[in-house]
Amino acid sequence: MTSAGSGLSLLQTCALSLLVFTGASQFALVGALAAGGNPLTAAAGAFFLGVRNAFYGLRLSQLLALPRAVRPFAAQWVIDETTAVSLAQPTRRAARLGFAVTGLSLYILWNLTTLLGALGAKAIGDTDAWGLDAAGPAVFLALLAPMLKTTVERAVAGLAVVLGLGLLPVLPAGVPVLVAALAAPVALFAEGRRAGRTRDDVSTERSRTAAPDTPDDAPEEAR
Amino acid sequence: MNTWIAIGATALGCYAVKLAGLLVPAGALERPLVKRLAALLPVALLAALTAQQTFAHGNALVLDARAAGLAAAAVALVLRAPFLLVVAAAVLVTAGVRAMGG
Lengths: 223, 102
Fold this sequence. Notes:
The complex is a heterodimer.
Chain A: H1 10-19, H2 23-34, H3 39-50, H4 52-64, H5 71-74, H6 80-87, H7 92-119, H8 121-124, H9 135-144, H10 151-166, H11 175-180, H12 183-198, H13 202-210, H14 214-222
Helix pairs in contact in A: 1-7, 2-3, 4-6, 6-7, 10-12, 12-13
Chain B: H1 2-23, H2 32-55, E1 56-57, E2 60-61, H3 65-78, H4 83-99
Antiparallel strand pairs in B: 1-2
Helix pairs in contact in B: 3-4
């Protein structure tokens, strides 16, 4: 819808949804192109927004334990929604099913709405008036809530919110979310140190030596 | 033509990072620390995304009807409402606050 309104052809709009299939990146690309940006700069911004999907894949590959041959096909569906649904499932079977169902239905819906949106961009009017822009964050919140079981998860979420919002005005789109991901290694590091203080057996010694290298590893991935 | 180059580059890049995450060898994920990290990363990302989609307007932070909608969703979650009801609460409250000029 947005892209049809900003100078992309019907074919280009649909190709974008079919091939890229990660909403934030699509909007970023379209926005940058509409603003007259250089195509490669625009693509770089969209790429940054897509990097978080690699973190999701990391978690999903151990959760779903997919056969190697299936992975290239499953990869296209590694997005916010499929990850959240898969993580909410109690068993591997349910997680695989959740991933497949969410992936397939979203892929079809997303591309169908793109086509309809591109065809009737002006006919639909202002979806914001209906409050539909609040559906996205509400879905994320509903999926996030069951994950906040312990203090560590809550601390990670809190720190990520502060980083994500605090850096939003100063960093390019997509980068604040990646920086917010650093909340995870930071919390693990803090947890490791606390464990080191309360216990002093060999296992803590190991976690103490293991913990300090996480903040160094993670930024590498984030870049 | 330029637009097609941008679309192609974005599609390739976005697919590559998705695949990269899935292809990390299972052995590397056996370490407990890596496991914990991989479990905590989605928490951080989802939390940051939720906050941004609620309070961001472009590069600026705003407090508008979406915040009321998200608060309604949070209340619904605390009351253990089913998933669709949580989303519906957010949408309805957001639309309601906007209709009242918020």
